[in-house]
């Protein structure tokens, strides 16, 4: 378990633990109970359970289309650090995206939550192009994103594009902010600290670091500010309890960003 956790640290992701761990649930539970790799195996258990729940729901909600059966995929999206999207645990390659704008469009709609008109999307992704050229780019990249992820990933309702709400998507940004909100509602103590520690483990780098649109820059700064505040809070918490090594490690992460 320690070797697997170390390998995940080296690779910068641990999705493979959930995939392989489905057949070794007792071993993963043991790692979680012993705190191997910090909270890594606790999160791995949560991923395994979430994927099992999704598979059960998918089995129930299969839709027959003629003689074929269409199912909605399990999607995992990561924007904190390396920008990645996985469909049923398979990484979508750059070749499948066909262009960075197709990938950015997917993450833009994922971050917006509410529907966006074509004009809002083109203003965010192609602010300097003429309406005709921006419209052409929009349709090309919408098609590419659908091909890369899943044909039914986007919906058009009342002139607004949005992600299909029936598709299960795990998004690290949403999980990061959910954990911060949960921590705010908790009293000061070990539960609050554990929740904040889970949140900072999700922050593996700047939000959508490969994109430089105005909307990504704004969101990047917002999330970075939240991360820095949590690092500072946890560093003070550990320093007050004379856990100086841990406090120093947290402050080093703070300094590496706030330079």
TrEMBL record:
<protein>
    <recommendedName>
        <fullName>Bacterial transcriptional activator domain-containing protein</fullName>
    </recommendedName>
</protein>
<dbReference type="InterPro" id="IPR011990">
    <property type="entry name" value="TPR-like_helical_dom_sf"/>
</dbReference>
<dbReference type="Pfam" id="PF03704">
    <property type="entry name" value="BTAD"/>
</dbReference>
<dbReference type="InterPro" id="IPR036388">
    <property type="entry name" value="WH-like_DNA-bd_sf"/>
</dbReference>
<feature type="domain" description="Bacterial transcriptional activator">
    <location>
        <begin position="171"/>
        <end position="259"/>
    </location>
</feature>
<dbReference type="InterPro" id="IPR051677">
    <property type="entry name" value="AfsR-DnrI-RedD_regulator"/>
</dbReference>
<dbReference type="InterPro" id="IPR005158">
    <property type="entry name" value="BTAD"/>
</dbReference>
């Amino acid at each position: 378990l320690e070797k697997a956790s170390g390998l995940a640290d080296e690779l910068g992701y641990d999705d493979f633990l959930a995939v392989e761990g489905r057949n070794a649930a007792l071993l993963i539970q043991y790692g979680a109970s012993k705190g191997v790799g910090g909270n890594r195996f606790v999160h791995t258990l949560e991923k395994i359970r979430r994927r099992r729940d999704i598979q059960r729901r998918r089995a129930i909600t299969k839709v027959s289309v003629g003689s074929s059966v269409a199912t909605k995929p399990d999607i995992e999206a990561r924007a904190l650090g390396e920008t990645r999207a996985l469909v049923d645990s398979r990484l979508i390659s750059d070749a499948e995206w066909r262009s960075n704008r197709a990938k950015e469009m997917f993450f833009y709609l994922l971050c917006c939550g509410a529907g966006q008109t074509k004009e809002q999307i083109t203003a965010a992704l192609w602010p300097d192009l003429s309406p005709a050229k921006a419209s052409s780019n929009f349709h090309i990249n919408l098609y590419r994103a659908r091909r890369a992820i899943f044909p039914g990933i986007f919906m058009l309702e009342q002139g607004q594009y949005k992600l299909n709400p029936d598709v299960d998507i795990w998004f690290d940004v949403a999980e990061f902010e959910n954990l911060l909100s949960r921590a705010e509602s908790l009293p000061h103590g070990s539960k609050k600290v554990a929740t904040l520690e889970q949140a900072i483990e999700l922050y593996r780098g700047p939000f959508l670091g490969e994109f430089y649109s105005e909307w990504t820059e704004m969101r990047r700064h917002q999330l970075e500010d939240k991360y820095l505040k949590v690092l500072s809070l946890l560093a003070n918490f550990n320093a007050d309890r004379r856990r100086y090594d841990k406090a120093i490690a947290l402050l080093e992460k703070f300094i590496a960003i706030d330079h």
